[in-house]
Amino acid sequence: MIPELGNFALALACALAFAQAVIGIWGAYRRDVRLMAATPGLAIGQLIALAASAGALVWASVGNDFSVINVAENSAIAKPLLYKISGTWGNHEGSILLWGLILAICGGLVSLFGRNLPSGLRSRVLGVLGGTSAGFLLFCLTTSNPFFRTFPPPADGRGMNPLLQDPGLAFHPPILYMGYVGFAVPFAFAVAALLEGRIDAAWGRWVRPWALVSWCFLTCGIALGSWWAYYELGWGGYWFWDPVENASLMPWLTGTALVHSAIVVEKRESLKIWTVLLAIGTFSLSLSGTFLVRSGILNSVHAFANDPARGIFILALLGLVIGGSLLLFALRAPLLRSGGIFAPVSREGALVLNNILLCSICAVVIAGTMTPPFAELLLGQKISVGAPYFNLTVLPLAIPVFLAMAVGPLLPWKRGRLWPLVEHAWWAALIAALVGGVCAFGMKLLPALAFGAATWLIIGSFAEVFERTLLFRTPVANSVRRARGLPVAVLGAAIAHAGMGVTVAGIAGTSLDSNKIVEAKSGDSFFVGGYKWILLGLEDRQGPNYRARVAFIEVLKNGEPLAIMRPERRMFTLQNQTTSDVAIRTNLFRDLYAVLGDERDGKAVLRLHVNPLAPWIWLGALIMASGGALSLADRRLRVGAPSRAPKGVVPA
Amino acid sequence: MNATGIARRRLMLLAPLGVAAVGGVAFWSMLDRMQEGKFDPHDIGNPMLGKHIPDFNLPGLGASQGFSSRDLIAAAQTQPVLLNFFSSWCIPCASEAAVLDELQKMGGVPIWGIAYKDAPEKTQKFLDQYGNPYARIAADASGDVFINFGLYGVPENFIIDRNGIIAWHIAGPLSDDAIEQQMLPAIAKAKA
User: Fold this and answer.
1) Which of A387, A577, B33, B75 is 20 to 30 Å apart from A63, CA to CA?
2) Cβ–Cβ < 8 Å for A551, A535
3) What is the pLDDT of residues A56-83, one digit of tens each?
């Protein structure tokens, strides 16, 4: 009964979304006040219906209702409760439902917090969100319905892919989707602005926090995915330039450009066309990324059940959403009047450069990801594009971004000179050059360069803060007073930029790892990365739905015992699949990383790594996201439309 | 702004739509051809496809007799042979075993197996456990034949026609769908 209610709620949500689209856009076109006033209610109704639907699926999964095909195929009685819940979105059908739910949450938030928006704009934004939602809910209902039943129901389900039974991954899809789907709101604002043919500073002030929230979630989502790959797959790597990873990186790159470009719209009423295109492009890439991965076109280690028939439906939908919005862009963008004029060397100029560079990196990543299927389609050739291509092409574009992002905020609006940059940031450049130079003695060129760049980013990013607080040039009390008056957004930007530096340092550090694959029997010892590793013994252990083989490895530094590490190899009997549970010991400056492989003739294969600075990769991402979150708290963002709503305007 | 300036601006603003349209058409034709089975991005391909099989002469398991490339071609004279590379240590091979068993019971295609880098007694245990669909089995302990055939991993499957040419290939385990939609048509073509 409950699954039927879920199915009904899903259908109801789809109908409400459709009504929201028609009434929202038609009402705004006719300037019909009553129609426009109805859209927020419809959006909230859609949210409630979808929440009920998702709740029904969780109910079926937790209650082991194996008559529901989706539950039978992805769950099992012995599965821990956490994964029964997270398993509902760990498969294709459920993840589409989650996708729709998050989109509905976005619509609901716009309805709740958007009371001070001009009613026409709000109505159009909700209309566009509703239309997008209706399309994907229809897709969910017809081709990917999670509530379909089977008879007779099996006694037990088939269980979940053991690799996905991991607490980190349980929350990865919701966070990542918040990022992907959150960009639907800037997209809807962009389309609404094109329909109206008008963009002003208030528009920018509305779009930026949405873009920023989505960006923060996407940053965390990507970092979480990469962290999962690092500790769960046990390959010792953290980024594999796999199509699915690239699919999440592309909207991140254009989304980063969008967040910056929207500042210019808000502050200077210029770069409007750029910003609209970035808003459309970011959501389009989010959509293409999430959905084309499922069509089976891209060859990836992240396999969803592929079905070309589903692919055609998705493609038609993408054509409608992306093609429609880009057509509207081509027709209406010339109407957008730009306000502020600026010189090439200015804050605006630097942000244009930032847009161009980030979009170029995105283009390079798209080219690398799409070349294999295109080459096969057009030339019938099998080509694989791997890390060497991406490293070679992304790096030269990333270097100018790194150079510019630390000091860009020092440039004044409208027109600037380069000399003040030198004046305010010379010390950062000097320290960075020193660090790079010192590193160059001990290591290869590239890591040394990267350490220099990381130093530049971390300390250079705070040049503006130092400048504004007159640190060291005035009594400390005065600096503190000035720091208090500093806009939070300035601090947020500095922290986010420095976070990038931390990530770069992590990547550079990890490239200097030492690792060894050894065959060991109990009592054997090895030296890896300046540590002594002793295999103490092996033991069997029983988990809730797996059997495990555990190795006990003692690690010593200079004869001092440091840690006992327990890497495991887990055999999931139901799926007949083996996974490795990596043991990681970190002190934030280096990771000890041990993997237990196969055993043969009484000897166990061990893979031992020492990864310097590895945690910094994800720590940096977290710092970036918290910088973004901090700048959300800036009161200048809260002051929405000039006169009304003194509080509570910030969404999310 | 003069007329050509405006025209150029319009053209520039149309460019994103153009790029998206090209991408859309390409994706559509990929999906279309995927449905017809003409396009498979997951198929790794094989450099030997359409070429004569490499020469080899392999021993069997333990005391039993293996086979050589000449034996294989001789057998393929009467009807195309499915050559399957497998290993006891390979998990997809274990799941493929059921499909091969089914295929062998169905008849029509003799299945010859080459055990790649495997201890003979372990191969034997694997066959005892999962069934033995093979007409003949050889052991490629060194992995030389594996390399000469241009394999990426185990399992991989080849159809050898009467001229000793590799008529069809799939990297990875055979599935019912792959047999139905690809292998059987390829055999029919090889016979014609």
Assistant:
1) A577
2) yes
3) 999 999 999 999 998 988 888 888 899 9
> What is the value of pTM for the model shown?
0.84
Q: Looking at residue A57, what is its pLDDT?
A: 96
pLDDT tens digit string along A86-120?
Answer: 889 888 889 999 999 999 999 999 999 888 888 89
Report, as an integer, the average pLDDT of A538-556.
91
Domain ranges of chain A: 1-165, 514-614
B81: distance to nearest CA of chain A, Å? Answer: 26
| Cβ atoms of A179 and A102 closer than 8 Å | no
Q: Which of A252, A244, A126 is nearest to A180 (CA)?
A: A252
Q: Which residue has the tokens 């800036």?
A: A634
The residues spanned by each domain of chain B are 1-41, 57-191
What separation in angstroms does the CA of A562 have from each of A513, A558, A589, A615, B192? 19, 10, 15, 19, 70
Chain B partners of A284 at a C-beta cutoff of 8 Å?
A: 20
Which of the residues A278, A355, A377 would you substitute to probe the B interface, choosing the one with the greatest number of B C-beta atoms within 10 Å? A377
What is the residue-wise DSSP string for A152-186? SPPSS-----GGG-SHHHHTHHHHHHHHHHHTHHH
**Topology, domain A1-165:** Four Helix Bundle (Hemerythrin (Met), subunit A) (1.20.120)
Grade residue A235 by pLDDT with cuts at 50, 70 and 90.
Answer: confident
Which overall architecture, per CATH, does domain B57-191 show? 3-Layer(aba) Sandwich (3.40)
Are A323 and B24 a contacting pair at CB < 8 A?
yes
Query: What would the mean pLDDT of B61-85 be, rounded to a whole number?
Result: 90
Chain A residues within an 8 Å CB radius of B117: none
Going by pLDDT thresholds of 50, 70 and 90, the confidence category of residue B161 is very high
Residue to test with chain A: of B8, B9, B13, most A Cβ within 10 A: B13
